[in-house]
Design a protein that fits this description.
Largest sheet: 7 strands, parallel
Order of helices and strands: EHEHEHEHEHEHHHEH
Strand content: 5-15%
Number of helices: 9
CATH topology: Rossmann fold
Helix content: 40-55%
Structural class: alpha/beta
Number of strands: 7
Number of domains: 1
């Protein structure tokens, strides 16, 4: 049985990687999707391909750093489909040539990272909440990262912003649960998205895999499956939680791989 029949979902950063996999999974589960992305050509190509397969999909331009785009994205979703049941706050990232360790990171890069990764999720949630409150239900799903839970040798600003996403998830769940609105998060580990493949060498990817408890790296479809579950009625009693989907990398002492052979 399809899990999201006639649900309307707005997904950011949805033209590639986890967002694209989520849009593709959602329509297969019966949802109508709005693909929001800064790369409008790629978003429109994806929406067109989904419509060619008899799915419901629309594409809109979305810049995470511009507050007006959040309001426009919700208005466009309502214009296309008349309602909004689910927001997937997926957009995010960081330039690791600037986002280094605390001593060496570019402090001037702080605002851009926070606006892209955290403020955008706050703004889009804020724009969607009045409609969700009015109909008495809704689901907001925030894509965080294990970087928001663990320390690292670089990506400091990214990790700080994703820690904020995890707590934003708790605050939304706490404040709007009384209106039937659920908010949950997903914290992926290494997922072989185009961005990860571009930014990590094969040796880097092998190092992540070494510390996974599972013998494989994640794929965008793995995270899309978790997001689909959280958006569905199967998760109707789950709110305020962030599910870690990292192949077991963070569940054990790192010494296990060295001395537990």
């Amino acid at each position: 049985m399809k899990k999201l029949v006639n649900k309307v979902a707005l997904i950011t950063g949805a033209s590639s990687g986890i967002g694209k996999a989520t849009a593709e999974r959602f329509v297969k589960e019966g949802a109508k999707v709005v693909i929001a992305d800064h790369n409008i050509e790629r978003a429109e190509k994806l929406a067109s391909s989904l419509r060619d397969n008899q799915f419901h999909a629309q594409a809109i331009h979305y810049e995470a750093t511009e507050l007006k785009c959040a309001i426009n994205a919700v208005h466009k979703t309502l214009e296309f489909y008349g309602t909004i049941d689910c927001v997937v706050n997926n957009v995010g990232g960081s330039n690791l040539s600037k986002d280094l360790d605390v001593e060496h990171l570019d402090i001037k890069y702080f605002d851009e990272v926070m606006h892209t990764n955290l403020r955008s999720m706050l703004a889009l949630s804020q724009a969607a909440l009045p409609h969700m409150k009015g109909k008495g239900d809704g689901s907001i799903i925030n894509v965080a990262s294990i970087g928001g839970l663990l320390g690292d040798f670089r990506g400091t600003l990214y990790g700080i912003s994703k820690a904020g996403v995890i707590n934003l998830t708790r605050y939304l769940a706490t404040q709007y649960g009384k209106y039937g609105i659920r908010c949950n998060g997903v914290a992926p580990g290494l997922v072989l998205t185009p961005a990860a493949i571009d930014n990590l060498t094969p040796a880097d990817r092998d190092t992540f895999l070494k510390y996974n408890t599972l013998p494989y790296a994640g794929k965008p479809e793995d995270i899309a499956g978790t997001i689909t579950f959280l958006a569905s009625e199967d998760a109707r009693y789950i709110s305020g939680q962030t599910i870690i989907a990292d192949g077991g990398m963070s569940c054990h002492s790192p010494t296990v791989k060295e001395i537990g052979k």
